[in-house]
Amino acid sequence: MEIRVLKYFLTVAREQNITRAAETLHMTQPTLSRQLAALEEELGTTLFVRGNRNITLTEAGILLKRRALEILNLEEKTIEELRNHEELVEGSVTIGCGEFGAVESLSRICEAYRAKYPKVQIKLHTATADIIQDMMKQGLVDIGLLMEPVDTSEFEYIRLPEADSWVVTMKPDDPMAQKDAVTRDDLLDKPLILPSRLNIQSELANWFGKDFEKLNVAFVANLATNAAVMAKNGLAYPVTIEGAMKFWREDFLVNRKLYPELVSYSVLAWRRNIPYSTAARKFIEEINAFKA
């Protein structure tokens, strides 16, 4: 019993007419009739009740229809699995990201992706959202992990679940380290290090309110690591998202959350309507699977 003949049988069962089925299958009616007769002979049973205009299934035909559908579905699934198994995906995917808590979600996506495509190298490029967006537009970065607020008009994206708390970083023996949280008033007379992104400064301006213009901004920094070195040497207090800084040793630096609390979310984005390598396209599929 051939798969090809089962497809002929199912077409006739659907059309309930030999002529229409033959037209659908792009074959002659006598050829189709011979194939069906040979199938009935092979199985030793009658599959059809042949009327003047329509053909209906016998009980044996109904049973074969059910089994034939199962067989064809299994064939299709098997072919798809074998093709995916044989598909060799190599190359690299470049991901631009900041030092965010949302990197935890990114790591889980990378874990699932690497399990499927172990020959693909994932390149992580750490930078601010503005730089990453420029690199994405130049085709230098495939995927961007961007902290909001960010212009997503040119991108497809998903919003990741982790929220990054804003903190002030200081030495563990600093008087503010004794507090559970840091307020606006605590910071007005302190030298500060603020993020260099203007969009992020606007978020902080909203939090500080009318006092923002009074701040002593000693440094601006695009990433938290170098700002933390300045804090370790007592030069200023970084006001930044906690991100990767939660992994720092607390005998060097500690973080205290802002009060009222301020949090930010991140998006994982890619440019829409452009060609991607197979490796990058598969990574985007993994992102969408994570969202689902």
How would you describe this structure to a colleague?
There is one protein chain. With 292 residues, the chain is an alpha/beta fold. Helices cover 43% and strands 23% of the residues. It has helices spanning 3-15, 18-25, 29-43, 59-86, 103-116, 129-137, 184-187, 198-208, 224-232, 278-291; strands at residues 48-50, 55-57, 91-97, 120-126, 143-147, 155-159, 164-170, 181-182, 191-195, 216-221, 237-241, 254-258, 263-264, 266-271. Strands 7, 8, 9, 10, 11, 12 and 13 form a seven-stranded mixed beta sheet that branches. Strand 3 (91-97), helix 5 and strand 4 (120-126) form a beta-alpha-beta unit. The longest helix is centred in the first third of the chain and has 28 residues, at 59-86. The two termini are 41 Å apart. The model has no long low-confidence stretch (mean pLDDT 89).
Topology:
Layout: H1 3-15, H2 18-25, H3 29-43, E1 48-50, E2 55-57, H4 59-86, E3 91-97, H5 103-116, E4 120-126, H6 129-137, E5 143-147, E6 155-159, E7 164-170, E8 181-182, H7 184-187, E9 191-195, H8 198-208, E10 216-221, H9 224-232, E11 237-241, E12 254-258, E13 263-264, E14 266-271, H10 278-291
Parallel strand pairs: 3-4, 3-5, 8-12, 9-10, 9-11
Antiparallel strand pairs: 1-2, 5-14, 6-14, 7-11, 7-12, 7-13
Helix pairs in contact: 1-2, 1-4, 5-10
